[in-house]
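User: We ran a pulldown and think these components assemble together. Before we commit to crystallization trials, I'd like a predicted model of the whole complex to look at. Sequences follow.
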Amino acid sequence: MTTDMLSWTRQQIETRKALAEEAHGASWALQDQLIERTDGGADDRAALLDAEDRTELVSVTLPGPGLDEDDLKHIAFNDPRQIIADCEADLGILDDHEPGWAGLKRDVRVCMACDVKRGDRWPCRTVRRIASRYRHRDGYLPEWAPEGTTP
Ligand SMILES: [Zn+2]
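Assistant: Here's a predicted model for the assembly, 151 residues in total across the polymer chains.
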């Protein structure tokens, strides 16, 4: 189970990172616009832009059904640059918490970064927490959850 959890988690992170690397641009920004109509009125519009070349990625007329300005703010805050940084940090943390063997017979699998005396056998709480970031993805097993994780 534990090796599968680590492999599965790394796969989730690598997939997320690859999708971010393939997305348009690195950094996204939100722009509010007032678009004049032919009838003399105007529509309020929110657009998600590539922050560097100002390419419009998606826009919505407000108020409207579906995506709204709060959704676009959320998307912009989670732009490819942020996702790649998150993924690189998580992969580094997983590297830091590689398992090793302890005990007189070298028969207890432990996290080499955590305090073994505290009871952090492999997988340690840190690795379980990283895995739990993906708990809503197919393949995550409830028994991997660290204590206190919301379903
Ligand atoms: Zn650890």
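The first helix runs from residue 2 to 22. That may be worth checking against your pulldown data before setting up trials.

User: Thanks, that helps.
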